[in-house]
Amino acid sequence: MLAFLKGVAQVLFFVLISSLMNGLAALLRLPLPGSILGLLLVFLLLQLKLIRLEWIDLGAKWLLAEMLLFFIPPAAGMLEYKSLLLVNGPRMLLVVVCSTVIVMSCTGLFSEHFAKIKERRPS
Questions:
Q1: 85 vs 83: CA distance, rounded Å
Q2: Phi and psi for 107 in degrees, rounded to 5?
C-alpha cells in the first residue's frame, strides 16, 4: 500500500510540473509546449541534485509503462478524418517510416561511436 501511495504522489508531481509549465508557456507565449518545458525542468532538477531519481522513479516507470493508453484518444480521433487519411495517408505513412528509419540509424551510429570512445578510455 505504501508503494502505491508513493507512486501516486510521484505521478501527481509530474502532473503538477506539467500544469505549471503549460501555464508558464501560455503566459509567456513561448513556442515550446509546456510538456517539453516540464521535461527540461525535471532534467535540470535532477542534474542540479535538487531532486533525487529515487523520489520520482516509481511514478516515471508507471507512466512509461502505461504510455500506450495516452495515445488511444488521438488515434480514435483520427477516424473523423477518414477522407484526409485516404488522400494523404500513404504520404504520411512514408514520412513516418522514413523518419523512424533515420532516427533509428542515427541512434545506432551515435551509440556505436560513443561505445568505441568509452572502450578507448582507460578505466
A1: 5
A2: -60, -45
* 2-46 tens-digit pLDDT: 889 999 999 999 999 999 999 999 999 999 899 899 999 999 999
Q: Which residues contact 10 (CB under 8 A, 6 or more apart)?
A: 55, 56, 57, 58, 59, 60, 62
Does the pTM of the predicted model rise above 0.85? no
Residue 33: what are its φ and ψ, rounded to 5°? -70, 155
Burial state string for 50-83 with b = 16 or more CB within 10 A and e = fewer than 16: eeeeeebebbbebbeeeeeeeeeeeeeeeeeeee
Contact 31, 45 (CB under 8 A): no
Q: Where are the alpha helices (DSSP H) in the chain?
A: 2-28, 34-47, 53-65, 67-77, 82-120
The C-alpha cell at 93 is 505513412
